[in-house]
Specification:
20-stranded parallel sheet; elongated; 236 residues; single chain; mainly beta; 3% helix
């Protein structure tokens, strides 16, 4: 099985390869099926990528979808289709026009997802926007400066807390206050701080500091911090 490597300005047709590596300004016209995909320069793929492992360290534009066992984005990527990845880590920036599906999504940089995100484990310490539903068994959000937005959140365990870092605390005055905004947050065990939401619904709900919630619906337990603002709460 051949390798495909573009080191300067160049283009190639798609196909099946062992390894694909874009180090310069390269364009691939067609679908790519490979074991490894690397984009270290500025790459464009006018087709779908199917691979075991992909890593984007430079700038990539994918005009279709990505299907990978593991995908890591350290640079910046624009994906016009869906992402299906067992493990997806975004340490740089990713703009995704489609759905995200997989086992684990880790956000340490910035991500924008235009549709739904469905994973088993969701972990975020960076900024993110999800225009659709975020659905995961475990959701762990540690807020930095800035605002993250999700239309709806559904999960078994949902936690949203400020990131504990001495460096970030020192730099905090330079950034806007960390905040999570959602229309609906629904789960079994919910613990929120610095969150604005219309409806929060769960078995056990803990509303911490700097929250502004219009309606709380709970089955078993409800706790509210003194600094939290809750419009109404009811046991269901």
């Amino acid at each position: 099985m051949d390798n495909l490597s573009i080191n300067g300005f160049g283009s190639s047709n798609g196909g099946t390869f062992h390894s694909v590596e874009l180090n310069g300004k390269g364009t691939i016209n067609g679908d790519v099926d490979c074991e490894q995909f690397f984009c270290n320069g500025s790459g464009t793929v006018n087709g779908q990528i199917k691979t075991e492992a992909a890593k984007i360290s430079g700038h990539a534009k994918i005009n279709s979808s990505i299907d990978a066992a593991s995908l890591r984005i350290d640079g910046s990527a624009k994906i016009e289709g869906d992402i299906s990845a067992a493990k997806l880590k975004i340490a740089g920036y990713a703009g995704i026009d489609g759905h995200v599906k997989g086992d684990e999504l880790i956000i340490r940089g910035k991500a924008s997802i235009s549709k739904d995100c469905e994973v088993e484990h969701f972990s975020a310490e960076g900024l993110f926007t999800i225009d659709g539903l975020l659905n995961a068994e475990q959701i762990d959000i540690k807020l930095h400066g800035g605002e993250s937005k999700v239309k709806e959140i559904g999960g078994r365990q949902i936690s949203c807390t400020p990131h504990q870092s001495k460096i970030l605390s020192f730099l905090a005055p330079l950034f806007s206050s960390p905040k999570l905004t959602a229309d609906l947050i629904e789960g079994d065990q919910i613990e929120l701080t610095n969150t604005t939401a219309k409806v929060v619904r769960g078995n056990s709900v803990v509303i911490g500091e700097n929250c502004d919630i219009e309606m709380i619906e709970y089955k078993e337990e409800f706790q509210q911090a003194k600094t939290a603002k809750v419009g109404d709460s009811r046991k269901i």
